[in-house]
Amino acid sequence: MDHGLFGPDSVTWKVMGEPILLVGGFRALLMQGLHPRAMRGVVQNSALMDPAEAWSRFARTTEFVRVRTYGTTEEVARAGARVRKIHASLTALDPDTGERFRLDDPAALLWVHVGEVDSYLSVARRAGVRLSDAEADRFVAEWRRAAEVVGLDQKDVPGSVGEMNDYIEGCRPSLYFVPEAAHPLRQSLNAPLPAKLTPLKPVFPMLTLLAFATLPRWARKLYGLPATPLGDLWATASLRALQTGIGLVPAQVRYSPDAKRARKVIAEHAA
């Protein structure tokens, strides 16, 4: 059977179906926002604040993550080709250098990839998803395949938690939040949603606040927010409490259809 990039033996399938990873997705966007070119590429090319377009863009991004995680080889290839074509066709201006760059700039793509992987892994482990150090390394290594989908070369992508941490540390001197972008916390207060989802609007500031709290202290400082050990403790405690609460929901309701299918295949594979 064609399981695409991952499959029942992967740590990715074990981790990615957990609903708590929604916080990881928000955190990944916040990490992306600290890379000047990555953020300017979004700001200058996205209808992010247009209520008529913002939700459809979010839905497309969510669908891409779903297909990349659970889709067949052919489905992943098609989704990747669409994303690479879009990135290659769009440009943005770097006002620091006056240079116009393409959105498939490898340095920006790599930062976005690493921020995503680091966010999923960090949130999962702090929430209490059981992962050994070896499994955490395997998760990072598995996502090298996902990096290829957006046009990166596997050999240029961190393959372990240690390599990932070293890469992030090396990027820190060049990171900042660009002044022309709306602050994500303020933006979350007026999140553009379709009318049928308006009742969920109060949830977005809370999710954004929790996602901010899960960032490293240096990243919170770059957003102009408090960064204390107490904040770290609050974030971990909140993730654990949320994960415990989610765990009380029956699995048939708790997991998405793809996650339920993956769990079934994992169980059959282990039998």
Amino- and carboxy-terminal Cα gap = 17 Å
N-to-C SSE string, H for helix and E for strand:
HHHHHEEHHHHHHHHH
Oligomer: single chain
Name the structural class.
mainly alpha
Unreliable stretches = none
Structurally, the number of domains stands at 1
Helical content (DSSP H or I, runs of 4+): 55-70%
Q: What's the overall geometry?
A: globular
Rg calc: 18 Å
Largest sheet: 2 strands, antiparallel
**Mean pLDDT, rounded to whole units?**
91
What is the overall number of helices? 14
The strand count comes to 2
Q: Which band does the percent of strand residues land in?
A: under 5%
Q: Strands of the largest sheet, in order across it?
A: 1-2
